[in-house]
Amino acid sequence: MASTTMAVLPTGGTIFTSIPDVFFIPEFVFGGLVWMLVASTRIVQMENPMGWVMFVSVFCFVMTTLLFFIYLFGANQNRVWPSLDVAYHFFAVVLYLSASVILAYITVLEGSLASIFIFKSYKLHVSAVVMSYVATLLYFLHTIFSAMRWKRS
């Protein structure tokens, strides 16, 4: 009796065509933009919690890169990987949502100061807030579709 074993998760070039895994590239782009926009701000006060935003964006960028290469090279063919995929992306959603809220709060406070010296910083933070919420949405969609794939496996 011949049995066919089906791959648990896609590997190689098929990660560019499977629905949850196609979100890797936009997560790179928008996560990297958050990282660059916040890092390019030169005005940082001691009470400014931008360190958390930077930690979240760098951590998620590195972990997503690691996960991407694990998928690309096919090291994800164990039965535990679908649940790890869902867990990581849910964790990333929680982290990015907390960082996005903090970043939006700081940006609103900067906007109320209305100083010409921090106007460039304000514009960079507005852009970072938008990119951060887009990254949160992408990680959320990846979590939903990964959970559906996990349920099927």
Provide an overview of this structure.
The protein is built from four helices and no strands. It has about 150 residues and is mainly α. Helices cover about 70% and strands about 0% of the residues. It has one domain (about 20-150). The protein has helices at about 25-40, 50-70, 80-115, 120-150. Helix 1 (about 25-40) packs antiparallel against helix 4 (about 120-150) and helix 3 (about 80-115) runs antiparallel to helix 4. Mean pLDDT is about 85; it is low at about 1-5. The protein is elongated, with a radius of gyration of 18 Å. The longest helix is centred in the C-terminal third of the chain and has 34 residues, at about 120-150. The two termini are about 20 Å apart.
**Percentage of residues assigned to helices:** 55-70%
Specify Rg, calculated over alpha carbons.
18 Å
Separate helix tally: 4
Order of H and E elements: HHHH
What class do helices, strands and sheet pairing give?
mainly alpha
Strand content: under 5%
Average pLDDT over all residues: 84
The biggest sheet amounts to: none
Indicate the low-confidence ranges by residue numbers: 1-5
Q: How many domains make up the 3D coordinates?
A: 1
Shape: elongated
Tally of strands: 0
What is the terminal-to-terminal distance?
22 Å
Layout of helices and strands, plus pairs?
Blueprint: H1 24-39, H2 50-72, H3 81-113, H4 119-152
Question: Which features does this protein show?
Answer:
single chain, 153 residues, mainly alpha, 4 helices, 69% helix, elongated, disordered N terminus, structural constituent of myelin sheath, MARVEL-CKLF_proteins, membrane
